[in-house]
Design a protein that fits this description.
The chain has 3 helices and 3 strands, in the order ααβββα. By secondary structure, it is α+β, with helices and mostly antiparallel strands. The protein has one domain. α1 packs antiparallel against α3.
Length: 124
């Protein structure tokens, strides 16, 4: 029993390290940092954000729309993005995204799987 506990203790840093690296990578791709509440307080006292994102896929391809409006510090700013992508490239992008998700989950679970494999070998 103590060897199982020792293995768990040895595997825990690897799991923590892998999870921290994945969170760090995700944080590096984050959008611009939020503005401080102090800068918002200097404005007229009213601020809002509105955003809309849509992707519609059919047999020909995918049509995407993104709109955002924000009113901060007395200024109204709007952004709009609209486009289409052919079906083959859309499918390639979706497959690549699925592959990245599977790879990240596998990376996160690898130390646990190795530990469980060692425990299974011990039990036989």
């Amino acid at each position: 029993m103590s060897s199982t506990v020792d293995r768990l203790r040895r595997a825990l840093p690897a799991v923590r390290s892998t999870a921290a690296q994945m969170l760090k990578r995700a944080g590096q791709r984050a959008v611009a940092p939020a503005r401080s509440s102090a800068s918002l307080e200097r404005g007229p006292g009213i601020s809002f954000r509105y955003s809309f994102h849509s992707v519609q896929a059919d047999e020909r391809g995918a049509h995407f729309v993104a709109r955002e409006a924000r009113f901060e510090q007395g200024r109204l700013q709007t952004e709009s993005l609209e486009g289409t992508i052919d079906r083959e490239r859309y499918e390639q992008a979706i497959q690549a995204l699925k592959g990245q998700v599977v790879q990240r989950v596998a990376t996160l679970l690898a130390p646990i799987a190795a530990l469980l494999g060692d425990l299974e070998d011990e039990g036989s």
